[in-house]
Every structure is written in structure tokens, then in C-alpha cells.
């Protein structure tokens, strides 16, 4: 599984381009909730415990990160950064976000067009770490 596919799996926990748009207050609050869930292990564990699909996505991530807590955290933090890029590029439009995520599930490489250059660089660096024999 590619790093992009791995991040798509992490984004499955959410339940739902470089040019960022301002988000309305409700969208900004929802984004903050999703980012906290992806970035904070305790919040993430609570979300995973309540949903079989999220548990399956987390199991994939744990397998690909070889159970490394540091790599697992890096995957989830990157997923948050990617989700933020997608949310901002869509102006917080839930339908547009869902379309990007659905496209990414079928074609993980399509995700790249929705990412800022810094996020894309971080994704590439994580892919290198995950493809290294030791996972580092």
C-alpha cells in the first residue's frame, strides 16, 4: 500500500489544492474537531473504539507502520494536514470534500492535486520512511 493509500485509510476515520480558502466559523470548528481527533491519540482511540470501519483503518495503519508509535502518529498528523488542505481548498463544502476522498480511495495518486506543496513534500518523506526496510 502506498503512503497516499495509507493516509486515505487514516482519513477514513474522519467519516467523511494549495490555494486555501477561508472557512466559515462552523466549518472551522468542525475542522478543528477532526484535526484534534487525528492528532491526539486519546481522542483518536475513542473514535476508533466506536466504529468498526475506523478500527479496520487503524489496523491497516498499525500494520504498515510496523506498530511504531512514532510512525503511526506521523501518519495521523499527516492525515490531518491533508484533510485541512482538502477542507480549505473546497471552502469547507462537505460534498466537495467527500468527492475528493472518494476519488482518492479509488486512485490515491489523485490526492496530490488537492495538496499544498509542503503537504505533498511531507507525504513523499513519509512514503520514503515507510518503504525503508526498518520503517524509519
Give a written overview of the molecule.
With 136 residues, the chain is mainly alpha-helical. The chain has one domain (3-131). It has helices at 3-11, 25-39, 41-49, 52-64, 69-89, 94-106, 117-131. Helix 1 packs across helix 5 (69-89). The chain is globular.
Low-pLDDT regions: 15-20
Spatial gap, N to C terminus: 16 Å
Largest sheet: none
Report the total helices: 7
Can you count the beta strands? 0
Structural class: mainly alpha
Q: What fraction, in percent, of the residue positions are helical?
A: 55-70%
Arithmetic mean of pLDDT: 81
Question: For this entry, what is the oligomeric state of its chains?
Answer: single chain
- H and E order: HHHHHHH
- If you compute it from the alpha carbons, what radius of gyration comes out, rounded to the nearest whole angstrom? 14 Å
Q: Strand-residue fraction?
A: under 5%
Using the alpha-carbon principal axes, give the shape. globular
**Total domain modules:** 1
In short:
The chain is mostly helical and 136 residues long. The chain is built from seven helices and no strands.
Please name the defining characteristics of this protein.
single chain; 136 residues; mainly alpha; 0% strand
Amino acid at each position: 500500500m502506498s503512503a497516499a493509500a495509507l493516509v486515505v485509510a487514516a482519513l477514513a476515520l474522519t467519516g467523511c489544492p494549495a490555494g486555501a480558502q477561508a472557512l466559515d466559523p462552523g466549518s472551522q470548528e468542525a475542522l478543528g474537531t477532526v484535526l484534534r481527533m487525528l492528532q491526539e491519540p486519546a481522542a483518536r482511540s475513542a473514535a476508533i473504539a466506536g466504529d468498526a470501519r475506523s478500527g479496520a483503518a487503524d489496523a491497516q495503519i498499525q500494520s504498515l507502520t510496523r506498530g511504531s508509535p512514532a510512525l503511526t502518529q506521523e501518519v495521523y498528523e499527516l492525515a490531518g494536514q491533508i484533510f485541512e488542505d482538502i477542507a480549505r481548498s473546497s471552502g469547507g463544502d462537505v460534498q466537495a470534500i467527500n468527492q475528493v476522498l472518494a476519488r482518492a480511495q479509488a486512485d490515491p495518486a489523485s490526492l496530490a492535486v488537492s495538496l499544498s506543496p509542503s503537504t505533498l513534500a511531507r507525504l513523499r518523506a513519509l512514503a520514503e520512511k515507510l518503504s525503508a526496510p526498518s520503517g524509519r
